[in-house]
Amino acid sequence: MKPVKVGICGLGTVGGGTFNVLQRNASSIAARAGRPIIIEQVGTRRDNPNCDTGNTRVSRDIFEVAHNPDIDILVETIGGYDIAKELILTAIEQGKHVVTANKALIAEHGNEIFQAAREKNVIVAYEAAVAGGIPIIKCLREGLSANKINWLAGIINGTGNYILTEMGDHNRPFEDVLKEAQALGYAEADPTFDVEGIDACHKLTIMASIAFGIPLQFNKAYTEGISKITPSDIQYAASLGFRIKHLGVARQSQKGIELRVHPTLIPSDRPLANINGVMNSVVVQGDAVGQTMYSGPGAGAEPTASSVIADIIDIARTIEAPDSAVNALGFSADSLSNDLPVLPITETECSFYLRIHADDHPGVMNAVTQVLSSHGINIDAITQKVTREDDGCADIVILTHRIIEITMDKAISELEALADIKSPITRIRVETMA
Ligand SMILES: NC(=O)C1=CN([C@@H]2O[C@H](COP(=O)(O)OP(=O)(O)OC[C@H]3O[C@@H](n4cnc5c(N)ncnc54)[C@H](O)[C@@H]3O)[C@@H](O)[C@H]2O)C=CC1
Ligand SMILES: N[C@@H](CC=O)C(=O)O
Ligand code: NA
Question: Which domain holds residue 254?
Answer without folding.
Answer: 145-295
